[in-house]
Amino acid sequence: MALLIKSGTIITASETFTGDILVEGEKISSVGANLHVDGVEVIDAAGKLVLPGGIDPHVHLDLPMAGTVSSDDHYTGTKAAAFGGTTTVLDFVSQDTSPLTANVGAWRLKAEKAAIDYAAHMNITRLDQKVAGEIPDLVEEGITSLKVFTAYNGRLRLQDGEIFRVLRIARERGMITMLHAENGDVIDLLVAEALVSGHTTPEWHARTRPAWGAVEAVLRASALAAQAEAPLYIVHMNVAGEVDQLRYARERGVKVMGETCPQYLFFSIEHLRRSDGAKWLCSPPMRTPEDNDRLWKGLADGTIQTIGTDHCPFFFDGTKPITYEGTSIAIPGKELGKDDFSKVPNGLPGVGDRLPVMWTYGVRAGHITPNQFVALTSTNPAKIFGLYPRKGSLLPGADADIVIWDPERRLTYGIAYAKHRTDYNLYEGWELVGYPDKVFLRGNLIVDGDRWVGRSGMGRFIPCQPGAPAL
Ligand code: DUC
Ligand code: ZN
Ligand code: ZN
Description:
This protein is of the alpha/beta class and about 475 residues long. It is about 30% helix and about 25% strand. The strands form 4 sheets. Strands 1, 2, 3, 4, 5, 18, 19, 20 and 21 form a 9-stranded mixed sheet that branches. An 8-stranded parallel sheet has the order 6-9-10-11-12-13-14-15. It starts with a strand and ends in a 19-residue tail after the last strand. Bound molecules: dihydropyrimidine-2,4(1H,3H)-dione (DUC) and zinc ion (ZN) (2 copies). Dihydropyrimidine-2,4(1H,3H)-dione binds near residues 282, 346 and 347.
């Protein structure tokens, strides 16, 4: 049956107005004032906000790392996302020695159990003539974004000349290159020195990955993008100086865009110094309160275009099982590095936290407007990665991915609410005002208050379209 969402405060990336949304099948069919349609299910959204479903441009699901695997798979991670108001995620396909399209095929099989819609970026971590020739095949597969790394020597890193080649191939095919910006040479040396000196605590993870490495890598890659006349997207920005370099390049016409994540807005190296500091251990690391401030300003003034999460959870203590959907489960996690920070699996939970935390501590705290919130967490990721207007909009013809948001709901957040399959939450005890009330995926109700009414396999692969605009 068709669905009419009535009298909500509709918030898009550019407008706020009171109106109705008619959903027919999987699509939004009209948006307007006082829509009257007979024989439809009506939801009264008066007093509520109506938003396009969140799009998380950066998650890692079921990712093998450091002798274990990230603890959310494509079902549990997407269910957690849905509870937080996110209806599409972009995951990463790892490259091995098979053809790139075979890597995509293997990832597609793993992703089939997703409960919300999903798309993917391809990691390019080894480049030769053959791989270069295979990159254009990805467009046919619905993958139009390529992630490269200036760190993780001998594993994931490409050299500058290789990054330049990827940028040029991407430009020719209407694709976009994404950059993990750190200095692998410096990191490897500092990690080895720290361990020899007996520095093993999580704090040393940050101390061996200096902020300057991120800053220079952003400028270096922006310069490569300028010379390749290609678009570039800097992932997980975490340092004030990165924002300055991004701004410098953008002011000179380089098509470079940036993403940050909530953890880089709220936390610092101080959190790594706690006795449970490994909970905050991810790459790149958290920096300083001054960096938090500059990132907030970068969001507010438009220098940074998106907020992702880099969701990649591990148990804090993977020797102790939790109960997930009635079943006891334990997955080795951060305890693997209790005597050596370099052995702690890198990553954090966050996909479900993103919208609720950013609403209270971003919008209500006055850092960003409600329209910027929608732009940063939904519309801009959709535009940059070729999913717009099907995703990230409330326009007629768009997928009916809709969040009815209760701006008055108050709760004390933490693992009691977050649905990630892990044993901790970074925002434990944080007071929230505003929370998703109902979440629709292509017209299907999947979250109803605190109730899960979605299911594994409901998510669909959404191909990214080439030729997306640089924002
Ligand atoms: N950083 C992490 O902390 N985990 C997964 C991948 C990444 O870039
Ligand atoms: Zn990265
Ligand atoms: Zn990542």
